[in-house]
Queue: 3 jobs
Job 1
Amino acid sequence: MKEVIVSKFGGSSMADYEAMTRSAKIAINQNSNIVVVSAVYGVTNLLVELSKKSCDSEWNDIEPLLKEVRNKHERILEKLPSQNELKEKVNKHLEELNTLVKGIFLLKECSARTYDSLLSFGERLSSLIFAEVVKENTEKDTQFFDVRKVLITSDDFNKATPQIDIISKKCDQHLYDAKYGNVLFITQGFIGNSIEGHTTTLGRGGSDYSASLIAEGIGADILQIWTDVAGIATTDPRIVKEAKLIDEITYSEAAELATFGAKILHPTTLSPALRSNIKVFVGSSYEPEAKGTWIKTKVENAPLVRAMAKRTSQTLLTLSTPKMLDAHGFLFDIFKVFNDFKISVDSITTSEISVAVTIDNDVTHNKKFIDELSKLGKVKIENDLSLVSIIGNEINHTPNLARRIFSCLDNINVRMICLGASKHNFCFLVNEKQSDDAIRFLHKEFIS
Ligand code: ADP
Ligand code: ASP
Ligand code: MG
């Protein structure tokens, strides 16, 4: 029986008519069952800018952004041979977007729910156009599909939690033809629907996660992530040009890479795939014939150092109080506050009277959260740091590794170290401005 395939194409694979055509041909040649797409390259960033400017700028500053969103889509439409009906649909979406932005501008307020509605236009528009590009390139039956019928989430707008059981039932209900009916479905990444019926999003870069959830929902065999690099590399090729492509990598290593900042995969992409035993492929839509990377449970080669990544915009929050001396339950009190505010901690160290944790920079704007923590002790905040991590195997059982890491870092000051929790990860905190250098030094020492 044919393998069931879900293919996801990111923003750069949707950049213009040529990129869309290339991506459509890949989906057709691969015999994909469902294609999940991101917004046209740059559109989500424009929508984010619109959400801010609509609250604090003049209409004159807002209009050019709306025009840019329109132009990006119309430039693609112009190249499509059959476009009248589609043009009308796209225009209707753009008009709706204008009305929404006008509403935000008049009210000078953009709630989390409104923000998600605004951002959803990116994927809704790109998928509409891409569905037509696919149709132009195949005789096969194709169908545009609104993912909000199946991708049900919590109502935590901006970073909603998928409701896996409901998604699975809805996929059985709505995506039968994609799996068994030889119809190629085209749908949106990133967006979902709350149980009450409001549009939600899964967080920036969330289309990878959407694709994995849909793959799980329909019981797919393979999830393909098509992007602008020919697979997962030993580090971000934008930082180290000679980064090497990895042929195969385990779920655990790839998940650590994603969690610790490698933009190639959204951090939660691999959970559904791992849970449901779906093989994951990462490849380039610009170079589809290249080998790409396979993410699997077992791989032949398990090097000590596989890759390195950085997670930017980190804050080190230190909470100190003499009350911690000889006390128990103190960490419980601290993490209860994090839990109440749904704030996730990336790494942690403790001393006798202090606890230091890393969190995303923007969390420190949450005054209520800081006030609540301050009731437990003195809070100190250091912004603009980066968490640099080395991902590999047997990291916590290898003598001399720490010596090699810190010797190669030259005079970069290391603000905090985390080692021991995972055999796949060693991470440390440095000033943001020095993080690329840290990666270059490490890559030279362990890979190049
Ligand atoms: P898409 O729009 O297709 O989702 P992204 O920009 O989100 O693409 O992710 C692809 C980018 O991830 C690459 O262009 C690359 O700069 C970056 N990246 C970061 N770490 C890695 C890595 N280890 N291997 C490959 N690419 C990486
Ligand atoms: N378009 C969304 C973003 O730019 C989701 C994605 O591309 O994965 O964040
Ligand atoms: Mg991405």
Note: The mean pLDDT is 95.
Job 2
Amino acid sequence: MSVRTRFAPSPTGFLHVGGARTALFNWLYARQNDGKFILRIEDTDAARNTEEAYKVIYDGLNWLGLDWDEGPDKGGPFGPYQQSERNAIYEKYLAVLEAGGHVYEDNGAIRFRSQRKPVLVEDIVCGKIEFDMSNPATHPDMTIRRPDGSWIFHFVNVVDDIEMQLTHVIRGEDHLSNTPKHIELYQALGATPPKFAHIPLILNHEGKKLSKRDGGSSITYFLDLGYTPEAVANYLCLLGWSPGENREFLKTPEILSLFDLGQINRRNSIFDLDKCFWLNGQHLQHMSLERFEELALPFVDKAGVSYGTIDALRPALAIVKPKVKHLSDVPDWIGFLFTEEYPFDPEAVAKSLAKPGAGDRLQALGSALSALSDWTHAVIELKLKETAATMGVKAGELVHPARVAVSGRSVGPGLYEMFEVLGKARTLARFDKARALAA
Ligand code: GLU
């Protein structure tokens, strides 16, 4: 039977990193096995569901590159893929339980009668666990339908997993204790349960379950700050799994070939935003310029940087790529390249331009550079160093004021690359302008 996995979020308006990781593991397993990955929206709790909440899920998954084969927006052979539209199917399954004498009414609610037999859960991650179901006080008969006719999660979740022919249920360990109840339902419905894999919880630094209040617990956080989706996917896959050999930086194709559902460890994972930040820097540095451009462009456009044409923007992106930590930093890092009205940071001015002799040094550098006919960074660098040597000063004595002169600040892209991108005329004009600020 070909593999079918699913991500079954409730539309809460929030895509939690734990949910995103569940989606990722399901997606990886389906893709590794030429299977299908299904998106099912568990929206039986009608009051909370809004279009916006659906959008958060779609946007988050799309951003992470987790494409689904069947889902509410895509359709498929087992739709509809949102529970609020599957009432007729649930009625049919309830009738099966009724016919088998598995349910009874209790104050208007419908409850499922446990067989009170031990249930063995054979979990890919957690191993074999036997649940003793004999005590109604600890394992009461579960309600499957409320008096108002609405359905309870356990029942519709199992019905859908049967109907949608899912072969593997990969989900958070918080559902492990539900699994024996689900298996009882499968048995009563005469269906074979799927294979289960319960993945470890994600904890915050205090050892508590990562909650909405913890920084970075929402995928939107990463999207807005300008993390790269490949870094976030990379980080998420390390929460509970490792490729071994202390490897951490992984590109998505590598994750796809190395990921092993059977190797997920049982220990809870600690959410480490610093690690994710570090990985983001790694991914930014190692990605192609084309990919960087694709990811950075929306941020640049949103900030209204007037770069003119994409051909003018490209060299600017190339010189900041090795330096930026978030894509949202890009507009600020390139802005000065596209306007002569760039601001001067007073502290940077005080530290270099305003130092005695800085104006003269800048002028000397300007005249040395003006002789260059080849305006490329390596040539510019040589000339600057040669000029410093001739003047008997350290290169830094020229580098620092020059940096502040052309960019207004003391940190930024590589100096010579910056000069190259600006072009000779604009670089030298900026030297002249900055000399007014120099001592
Ligand atoms: N809607 C459930 C949740 O959000 C899905 C549980 C499952 O994957 O079976 O936790």
Note: Residues 8-10, 42, 157, 169, 171, 175 surround glutamic acid (CB under 6 Å).
Job 3
Amino acid sequence: MQRVFSGIQPTHGIHLGNYLGAIRHWVRLQEDGRYECIYCIVDQHALTALHDRRAMTDNTYEVAAALLACGIDPAKSVLFVQSHVPAHAQLHWVLACVTPIGWLNRMTQFKEKAGRDRERAPLGLYAYPVLQAADILAYRAVLVPVGEDQKQHLELSRDIAGSFNRKFGVDFFPLPEPLITGEATRVMSLRDGRRKMSKSDPSDMSRINLTDDADRIALKIRRAKSDSIRGIWYDPENRPEASNLLAIYAALAERPVAELEAEFRDTLFADFKTRLTELMVEKLAPITRRMREYLADRPHLDRVLAEGAERARAIATPILEEVYDIVGFLRPGRRET
Ligand code: TYM
């Protein structure tokens, strides 16, 4: 059985980009039956940017509730919180020792997030992609469903796996493959079709959150940036906003963009927005409702996450022990033969 791993940060709740670009595919892989799926709420990654105890706790519960509401089933997938499984941080250190700094210097997400004053950026932000590699490799996972923005990090994970294997003369870590699929691999901001929909955008109007109710969704779509051309078709270069909304529609409807272009060729932008709002509310409202139910029962979420962490530890701990053997660390209590 092929092993799948993916993660999401609890920096905020989940937005439409996370859902369409990644989580929907997590659920598909879970339901496919051919994969062993491991899904992680990466709180240690979130700590690179989020320094607010209350928000960290609340967001972690919110993301857990959202994942369950989207269809992640703890009976079928391993669902857990990163900091509950020490192997991630432990493997991170080993991998950090086989990762050249030059590789990290090329990471565009670090450059974007660190901004101009790089000297003040935390070390954790710089090391972030090494921890991401550790997440995946701690399970020797081979398939990683993500949105397009994670492509570079995934390439780095492959390079790090290869570097470890070469340096220690082993064929231990498989090279993980990104799975970037669907009509919405890069959902863009509702306010600017050239920027990614993101949790860190200060404007809440730029994104649809899974907590938004029907009125809020309608308001955000109505206010979404548009152009004055009649008809909707896909042309991200010249009509980024129309193209983004069309891709969102296609992903929600699970229909190809080309088919929808024919349908909406003569539709006014405002009418298209009405159709999009109806579809979005139809698809998201049940998720939002289930999410509220899960959120109202934190003890249940605690139990689900504790069980998930136990299963995750049972997979990752022996792998870490093998890694420690490969690098030559002594095992306490074990005599060398
Ligand atoms: P994060 O928390 O930013 O996002 C979670 C997932 O959502 C995808 N995504 C998007 N997809 C389409 N359009 C968008 N606008 C959009 N925004 C986000 C992301 O690509 C991601 O798949 N570094 C990762 C978390 C991580 C991870 C891992 C992922 C940590 N360890 C190991 C895979 C494997 C991140 O920040 O995702």
Note: Strands lie at 2-8, 35-41, 78-81, 143-145, 177-179.
